User: Which sequence fits this backbone?
């Protein structure tokens, strides 16, 4: 992205829909006739929206949703050509890296089944809420393939033996098992999905946004460290956190027995 300021003005998103409301940016996968399979246009639009969300301080939470009966069927193998006027970011990362380096809360709102490469979005988001009817699968082995990229995120949220069985046999699991194994946070009846995700997103958006971003960046960086390296790194980060505007506002508000005003401490 460099130093170039990104804008949504004049852009027509073909494979996704973008909405911004109450400090929440929602990216809706919008190829239901193709089971929301990820083609080049969709991946570029998702990456652009995530980069825009990272740039804008006013955006505090990202929700990834989908139209149709399937959340996402993974990569589009049809090679069907499509276009949009959303610029291609020259230094764009894989979506999983974009999510991990966003350092903002990302909620996957799962209204249908999640297959194959779609697990990249699921395992690298901070939260995932799914309907009880949703199924989750990594069926690559049945096609003579292996979910190599998926493993990086999968084994950071699922127990190793559960994750290995999941990808070795390629069998689908239901929402109850996905919740038990940590693949999702919670499964809910379909009629409760909208309300549950909205409530969670609004709660996360109401919390100290600068500290949230700072803390999530520290979480991602320490995740790859040994304990002996992580502890001194985190000691330095907590000292920086205390010096931040959010901490100053939060502590002052606590002492003055009032609600903190995060907008005041997070001016552009």
Assistant:
């Amino acid at each position: 992205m460099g130093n170039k300021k990104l804008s949504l003005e004049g852009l027509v998103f073909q494979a996704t829909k973008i909405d911004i409301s109450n400090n929440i940016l929602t990216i809706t996968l919008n190829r239901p006739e193709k089971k929301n399979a990820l083609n080049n246009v969709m991946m570029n639009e998702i990456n652009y929206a995530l980069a825009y969300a990272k740039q804008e301080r006013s955006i505090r939470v990202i929700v990834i949703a989908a139209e149709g009966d399937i959340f996402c069927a993974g990569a589009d193998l049809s090679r069907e050509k499509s276009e949009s006027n959303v610029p291609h970011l020259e230094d764009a990362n894989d979506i999983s890296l974009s999510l991990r380096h966003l350092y903002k809360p990302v909620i996957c709102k799962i209204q249908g089944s999640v297959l194959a490469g779609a697990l990249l979005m699921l395992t690298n988001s901070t939260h995932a809420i799914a309907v009880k009817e949703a199924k989750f699968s990594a069926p690559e082995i049945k096609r003579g393939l292996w979910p190599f990229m998926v493993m990086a995120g999968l084994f950071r949220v699922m127990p190793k033996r559960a994750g290995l069985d999941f990808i070795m046999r390629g069998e689908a699991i239901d929402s109850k098992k996905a919740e038990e194994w940590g693949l999702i946070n919670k499964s809910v009846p379909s009629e409760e999905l909208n309300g549950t995700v909205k409530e969670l997103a609004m709660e996360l958006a109401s919390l100290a946004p600068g500290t949230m971003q700072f803390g999530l960046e520290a979480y991602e960086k320490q995740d790859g460290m040994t304990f002996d390296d992580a502890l001194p790194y985190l000691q330095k980060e907590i000292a920086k956190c205390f010096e931040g505007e959010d901490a100053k506002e939060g502590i002052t508000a606590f002492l003055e027995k009032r609600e903190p005003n995060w907008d005041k401490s997070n001016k552009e």
In short: The CA atoms of residues 44 and 88 lie 6 Å apart. The first helix runs from residue 40 to 55.
